[in-house]
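User: Batch of two.

Assistant: Item 1 of 2:
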Amino acid sequence: MSHLANILVVEDEAHLAQGLLFNLREEGYTAQLAVDGETALEMIAADSIDAIILDVMLPGRDGFSVAAELRAQQNFIPILMLTARGRPEDVLSGFDAGADDYLPKPFELSILLARLKGLLRRMAWLRPPLPASPPQPLRGGPPSAFHFAGRTINFASLQLTTADKTIRLTLMECDLLRYLVHNQGRIISRKELLEQVWRVHEDTDTRAIDNFMVRLRRYIEDNPAEPVFLETVRGIGYRFLPGVAEGSPG
């Protein structure tokens, strides 16, 4: 990134928080601290924040609530959520609230820094390139957009456009749509989605995936109650059927 990324750490464990601030600054970031959810929301409203490291367990307003509030405000700052013991239900609840990535506690600093760089890099792709610059490649390769049935998923700008609306997507929603596009026509199990998109490798309740699919149907279907493009395969998972598409998944 061309400017020093401003990272907000939202963590009430003093020892961990100070260690994160120190190491983020050593890496060249600007780093600030909020010890509770309400303070975090106030700081985000008052300052330009590039990414948030957000603990789930906070006094008062928890991390899920903070993430959900930001997304409800149409604020799409990348969120790296820290989950207790990597519990699958925490991971899925975090993504459902609008988080873009997660790390279970305890974590290795090198992994956190790598995940953070990945989120910042993906957001940097959204900035208009200089006139002479070639397009930035997206994770997973081309294309930067996928067209079907009068709808466009723009992976570069994190937007889904239909005839009458434009919806801003989270990074995770884009990753899920990208996976569906790459595997269109194939039945995809909930377990596969958990492992390949959410990177959760434990047996867990899959209702959060179903909640994501309900949300995606509201975005892409004319009648979400009777889906045409994103069908449920009972007892297995889902199948994306875009029909005759104008674009190719690559």
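Item 2 of 2:
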Amino acid sequence: MNDVVTIVCLANSRKPPSGRCIAGKEKAGGAYGKWVRPVSVRPTHEISEEERRFEDGTSPRLLDVITIPIIAPTPAGHQTENVLIDAAYYWEKVGTATWADLGQMLDRPATLWTNGNSTFHGHNDRVGATAVAQVRNSLLLIRPDGLRIRVSAESQFAGPSRRRVRALFHHNGEYHSFVVTDPIVEQTLLARPDAEYTVPEAHLAVSLSEPYSDGDCFKLVAALFARQPL
């Protein structure tokens, strides 16, 4: 084993083609540090089910404190938080963080990367290739203002409409609308009728995707932490 890192799991979101994007803040003693995103050797970097499984057969959940064997940092463009896992070893759960702990881990950026670029269904949810070249981070934990979760059908390029879960909120006075990739939130909300659901007290882990074919990146809600169950 080369080395280990201990993180609080703040993102466990779906990632194509068939894995997860796991990320969290480093924990040392009682202090929380930088963001860390464990990645695999695959070109798309996702973590497979086997790679993230604990020795007892369970898998990481949000707020788990996890020790992960790693080989080395592997920053990739704006995703400076990436570290390559040592897939020969199990991950280990060593504790659980609380709602109160989340308050100590909040980031306070002036903006969520750059604003002014939007997808058809979203708002301020795209960062163009030129702007991305200047970005040096891809993960943030924020406290949104006026959070609502919308469940609705959205048309797809060259395909039928599909129901999606989207977070609508303000941050420092700017309105945002991001797709939610938190699979637990998706499962919970897609079982309900199309509507907007108010979430009175919550934190969001937001991420900036890897570049698509045109070089643009998209802002996503990788995890939603609600004070009360959704």
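The chain has a mean pLDDT of 95.
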